[in-house]
Every structure is written in C-alpha cells, then in structure tokens.
Write a structure and sequence with these properties.
- It is a single chain.
- The protein is mainly alpha-helical.
- The chain folds into 2 domains: 86 residues, no CATH class; 53 residues, no CATH class.
- The chain is built from 6 helices and 2 strands, in the order αββααααα.
- It has a two-stranded antiparallel ribbon with strand order 1-2.
- β1 and β2 form a beta hairpin.
- The longest helix has 60 residues.
- The protein starts with a helix and ends with a helix.
- The mean pLDDT is 84.
Length: 180
C-alpha cells in the first residue's frame, strides 16, 4: 500500500514531465504565432480572391441554367459545376391536423407515418430526492469518488485563455464583417 510520501513523489514526477510538455507546447505555440503572422496576410488575400471568384461563378451559373440542361453537372478542371435539384425540407404547418389527415386518408400507413413516443424526462427526474427515485426504479450512476489529476489554474493559463478568446472573437468579427 502506498504512503502519502509515495503519492507526493509521483505527483512531483508527474509535474516535472508535465512542465516539460508545457515547455514544448509553449515553444510550438510561439512558432505557430510566427507562422501565422508570416502567412496570415497572404491567406486573407487568397481567401478574399477565392470568395469573390466563387461568387462570380455562382452568379454566372445561376443566371444561365439552360447551359446545364444535359448534362446537369459537368466536371471542369477538377471542379463540379452545374445545376441539381435540392433535397428540400418537409414543412408541416399544423402537426395535429396532419396526424388527423393521415389517420383519415392514409389509415393503412399510419403506423409508419405517425410517431408516438413516451419517455421519462431525465432533467426533471435528476431533481427528485433518492426516495422518490427508488419509487420509480431510477438511480444515479457514477456518483462516487473518482481520481483527480489536474493542474491548478495558473496566471499564465488564464492569460493564454484570455488571449485565445480575444483572437477568436476578433476573427469572428472579421468574418462577420466580410459576410455583410
């Protein structure tokens, strides 16, 4: 059986190898940032050009559907272009009325066309006390002690997380502006 000193020794060993991994990840992150800074302007420009060209091609095809009567799709320089019928989506304005109409007009298919479901609400049941849960033959599984090995949040991790969130928001705003 292990002693607390054994656990402390293993934690120190784990912390040492984890710091080594963190150092490698920091180096990788720094190198990645350098590469981003180097290539980001070119990527933005190329993305803009591709987006503009895609829009022009889309409008050309949409304005000239007759070019794609037969064959409907063509493969040109590795790009499939043309027209095809969309999958569409089923629209049911009034589900209750639709069910009644199926029962009236398509009675022989009602078992296939009408879905009936009854199932317990897990969210509501989780709020019950243990006595009530036993009455309905329900229990919560996995509610026992489990091993925890995690780093305490360091100031550096908080700063990095904040920077990553800021960068993600900045990119999202930039993308939103491009769509407008």
């Amino acid at each position: 059986m292990a002693t607390m000193q054994d656990v402390e020794r293993e934690v120190r060993n784990f912390a040492a190898v984890k710091r080594e991994l963190d150092a490698i990840m920091e180096e990788l992150t720094a190198e990645t940032e350098i590469l981003k800074k180097k290539y980001l302007p070119r990527l933005r420009k190329a993305t803009s050009v591709v987006t503009n060209q895609h829009g022009a091609l889309y409008r050309m095809i949409a304005d000239n559907p007759g070019l794609f009567d037969k064959p409907r799709l063509q493969l040109i320089d590795g790009i499939r272009v043309g027209m095809k019928v969309g999958k569409g989506s089923l629209e049911i304005e009034d589900a209750d009325l639709t069910v009644k109409l199926i029962e009236k007009h398509l009675e022989d298919q009602k078992d296939i066309l009408i879905k009936t479901t009854k199932e317990p609400s897990k969210a509501a049941i989780k709020k019950l006390d243990e006595k009530s849960m036993k009455l309905i033959n329900v229990s919560i599984v996995g509610k026992k002690d489990h091993v925890v090995i995690e780093e305490a949040d360091t100031q550096l991790n908080k700063i990095l997380s904040s920077l990553l969130r800021f960068q993600a928001e900045e990119l999202q705003n930039e993308y939103s502006e491009r769509e407008e």
